[in-house]
Amino acid sequence: MRHGLRHRCPNCGEGRLFSSYLKVAPACDVCGQSFTAQKADDGPAYFTILLMCHIAGFMLHFMIVYSDFGPMETALSITAVVVAGSLMLLPRIKGLMIGWQWADRLHGF
C-alpha cells in the first residue's frame, strides 16, 4: 500500500502507477503488472473530501475564535488550503486505494 501512496507499482515498487495526474497506467513499465483490474472510481474523491472538510472545519474554528481575520480573508485562505490540499491528496489516496486492492487481491489483481 505504501508503494501506491508514492505513485509506484504496488507489485515491484519501481514502475509508475499513473500515466498522468489521475489516469492509471495500463501496466507497470518495469514488472508488467496489469492495473486494468483496479476499481478506484469515486472512493479517492470521497476520502479526499472527508479529510479536507475536517481540516477546513478546524481552520474555520481557529480563524474565527483566535484570529482577527475578516470574513473575506478567512474564506480566501480556507479555500486556498482546501484546493491545494485536495490537489495534493487526491492522487496519493487513489494510489493508496489501488495498492490496497492489489494487496488484498481484489477485483482480479
Q: Biggest sheet, open or closed, and with what strands and sense?
A: none
Query: Mean pLDDT, rounded to whole units?
Result: 94
Helix content: 55-70%
Spatial shape: elongated
Beta-strand proportion = under 5%
How many E-type strands?
0
Distance between the termini: 14 Å
Order of helices and strands: HHH
Ranges with pLDDT <50 over ≥5 residues?
Answer: none
**Discrete helix count:** 3
Sheet/helix structural class = mainly alpha
| Structural domain tally | 1
Structural Rg: 17 Å
Secondary structure elements and their pairing?
Layout: H1 2-5, H2 43-66, H3 71-103
Keywords: Membrane, Plasmid, Transmembrane, Transmembrane helix
Protein name: DUF983 domain-containing protein
Organism: Tabrizicola piscis
Keywords:
membrane, DUF983, plasmid, mainly alpha, 56% helix, transmembrane, 3 helices, 109 residues, transmembrane helix
What does this structure look like?
The longest helix is centred in the C-terminal third of the chain and has 33 residues, at 71-103. The model has no long low-confidence stretch (mean pLDDT 94). Helix content is 56%, strand content 0%. The protein has helices at residues 2-5, 43-66, 71-103. It contains 3 helices and no strands. This is DUF983 domain-containing protein. Pfam families: DUF983. The chain crosses the membrane at residues 45-66, 72-90. Keywords: Membrane, Plasmid, Transmembrane, Transmembrane helix.
